[in-house]
Design a protein that fits this description.
By secondary structure, this protein is mostly beta strands. It is about 10% helix and about 50% strand. The protein is built from one helix and eleven strands; from the N terminus they run H-E-E-E-E-E-E-E-E-E-E-E. A hairpin with a 2-residue loop joins strand 7 (about 105-115) and strand 8. The longest helix has 21 residues, at about 5-25.
Amino acid sequence: MGFEIEMKLYALAAAALFSAVLALPASAAPAAPLETFPGAPGVIALSGKCAKLVVAKFDATKGCKNELASVTLANGVVTFIFTSDGKALGFQGDGSGIKPASNGNARLPLSLVTTGVGNKMTGEVKVAGFCTFGNPYAGKPIAVECTAESKDSSFTGSFRTGGKLVKKGK
């Protein structure tokens, strides 16, 4: 076969392949991977509505800020931090223990509740409990529901997002 004919065949094959790829439905193209939550080390701030924040019999829901922080440390520890009237309550657990839960949610087993004022978390209480949460990167409203109990007290935090993207920090 002559060089010229061979080149025309290659060009035709390339054109056919290119038009076949363009004819594929968008759903057949590989999708960008969905970001996971809580994700890599860093801080993620979710905006939405603090639905409930209760420590023992003290209901701090009224002063609860409509922002929830998710902090993931390099060692995999994950903390969901609720704030109310300048005080902070963190529900903390080992991120490697996150397991799937119902309705596409995930569940983080808790080992500590941390307390603090402003940006300083100074108190720790050993607890047993869970935080159940959805993935805010999916673009729909999710809930973060945390409940924990120590030998002396109980802790509950509930937060609902509006489905908007989150703010990330390091």
